[in-house]
Here is the input.
Amino acid sequence: MTATSLQDISSSSYSDDDLECCRELQAEEWEVLQSIHPTICTSKSNGTVRLEVPVELDTERQIEIVPIPHELYNTTSGPAIPLQPVLLDSTAAEYKRTCNSASTISPISVSLSNLPPLLLDIILSPSYPTHSPAELTAIRAVSGWVPPRMMEEMRRQMMEMWADMGGDAVSGGGTGILYTWVEWIRNGEFLTSIGLAGQDGRIGIPHPSPALLVPLLRAHATGQQYKTFAQMSYPCGICLTSRKGVYCLHLGCGHVFCKACLVEMWGLHIREGEVSRVGCPEVGCESGGEFREATEDEVRAVLSEEEVKRWQWLRRKRDLERDPTTVHCPMEYCQEPVPREKTASTTEDDESGWARLRECHSCGYSFCSFCKRTWHGPHTPCPLPVTSKIVLAYLAASEHERITLERRYSRTSVQRLVRQHQEEEKNRKWLESSTTECPGCALRVEKSMGCNHMTCLRCRTHFCYRCGHKISATNPYQHFSTPGTSCFSKLFDFVPSGEDDWQPIEAFELI
Amino acid sequence: MDARLRRVNKEIADCKNDKASNIKIDLVDSSPFHLKGSFPGPKDTPYEGGVFEVDIVVPESYPFQAVKMKFITKVYHPNISSASGAICLDILKDAWSPVLTLKSTLISLQSLLCSPEPNDPQDAEVAKHYMTSKKSFEETARYWTHIYAGGLGSKGKVDTKEAAKDEIAIAGLEQTHVTQFEGLGFERSKVIDVLRRMNYRGSNAANISDERIIDELLK
Here is the structure.
């Protein structure tokens, strides 16, 4: 029967006043429902209403997907489906006995707070709600998570609800049945009524293929959670503003920050190579006693592909550099960290020349880890640094001797070598005078301000910036308060200038 | 407007609106990135009654890099350099987090004044003083609070006799000890310097012989 024919029949038996009254009541009911649940009311046209009702449980509930045979799932009548979850278990056990593939059809347990929506097609005849009921023409669960037979049971109970509300009486007591239905489904009450949930709150869903249904249920629940997250507002502790969830990232540790701030923070640390600082910005947010670093998914959600690549590279590099056998590829354009190959041969005779061999995975260069030159075999000793010998000889030589050397090795190449040498020398001198090497990992650090107690960013070793010695992590200041040592009372390098000791910090002048 | 400027402006405004915390943040010049913070010394400490000013520099990559802070007001405290005002507080270095603010950092400095940690000293000399005699340390700290962090009146001009006494009190020493060695013909400033370095205070004075001090004075 189509909607129009229904209208024809019903309109003939009621007075115009009655129908006008019904029209008004219907419009009002729809309007109210729409204002309460705008997303549930999908469409209304020509007396046909379509509702999409999601199932939103108060808390996460344990849901067991119990395998049942196809035939049992597809039947729409007969008492064969047990309505209590307790009974579901016995059905499953029986099913397992009759089927051989027990391993593929065992029940699967999931914990969810959202289930896919139910779609309801309802016809509101012109004489609804005073004279005729709302007719449920179709009811269907997205992803088919409710077996057809149970949908039949639902439909039966829903019609009963109409009768209970006094819909059969001429008084028009059935007004508002749509809202009652929606709530009954949305809050999950129907699960108990149709026997999918037991009194103890356990939910059991019979399905022919739990392994197929579970990912669909999970995907829906995650999507739903994200939707809720996206609509809420969260205060971001970095820009100190409130942003909608859709512009925020919910980190695995539970903290929420706006994406724009994380882009800046993580982007900066990745650019500057401080990979250990790419993590949750919250104070004291730790995992396993250490600063909580971001996961790959979190970094991907915020940064560009290029930055993610650099982040991965930095992490790999850091992990490799923790290995003391790691040396850097001597190729100027490459600089990849190259650890020693973990092969059986290196352990059996570490003394052999093979232990010096390194092969760069990035550029393929094979070199000696001692002299950083092209691999010269395990037996040949490292060649003497001929070039530096020439340079030193040249620098020490008199004017006249220099000309001889220039003639022998060509003037331009000698001068190039000298320039290189001088530059290296300058670098070395600067490193020596302006930086201190971490006694833990040999990373060179330059102090910009503050006291002489340093904590290495890379290996977390505590050391003294003045003398470069490792100091106790638990009592680092003892080093500076032991009389008689060279660093006694030298926690701060302070050179009294006499006139005005109380100087503002250097950085002020830069502004 | 860039994010840093937006955030700093917000922080300054938030601080202005929050009367309860007593933390003030003011501009030093026209730049919003060079600021001056101030807070009252905590109650029931030698710093009570003083107002402590802090120089604040907001670095370019703030808030992802720690704010730079140092005391403008001289403070006698084991964890603050008595010479430069530098502070070595973990949150100003590696424990910094972008969720910390100028206000919360200034509050941390204020609570640092409440709880000196002499085992974690920044200024070894002050820490030694604290360890030798807490009472004498507190006297000196109170004196510093009075002359450096007090009201306008205490910063006024003082006559030379007053000034000489000040010098001794600032160093946390006793008048009699200084005059004793001054009487031997040493310069007052040198005596103060040596006695201060040797922590010639309270019960520790008995542990240091006059000869050792004279040796130091002659160096």
